[in-house]
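sorry for the late reply, my laptop died twice this morning and i had to redo everyting from scratch. anyway the thing you sent over, i finally got around to it. pasting the sequence first so we're on the same page, its 170 residues, then the predicted structure underneath. double check i copied it right bc i was rushing
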Amino acid sequence: MPAPPTDDEYAAFVHAAWPRLYRTAYLLLGDHGLAEDLVQTALAKTYASWRNVRSLDAAGGYARTVLLNTATSWFRRPSWRRELASEELPASSYDADLADRPAVLDALRTLAPRQRAVIVLRFYEDLSVADTATTLGCSTGTVKSQTSDALARLRAVLGDSAIPMGATHD
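ok and here's the structure:
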């Protein structure tokens, strides 16, 4: 049996995984501060189980699953349901042409937490239906129905030009 990864390997893993985990958390939560808190919490939980990690290749998937499970538990809290509306998105740190981005982020916020998680995993993380189901701990049928419902909702909010009718699940 191979030796568990070291603390130095954990530190290298955190530096490599942080940007991807943060982007996923931001897409799930829509708030920079909460996304940072979610990633920190997920990485702390990952570190607590670090001695059980058998392969560094599996660490990214494990941390993503911890992040999603933590976000799901946050969504269940009563305080989460008292969202604060904001008229402006935070200033961007780069100069890309992202004219549709505010509309897409606003549309993502209209989705139920499970639908938002499915859309982020399927279309941002580019996971398959089976991998998304495994990550969320549900059936592939649930992933497909949640994807279909979420895309229908996004089409209603954004219009067919933003989400073409061919964009469906596998």
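Residues 7-29 form the longest helix (23 residues).
thats about all i looked at so far, will dig more tmrw
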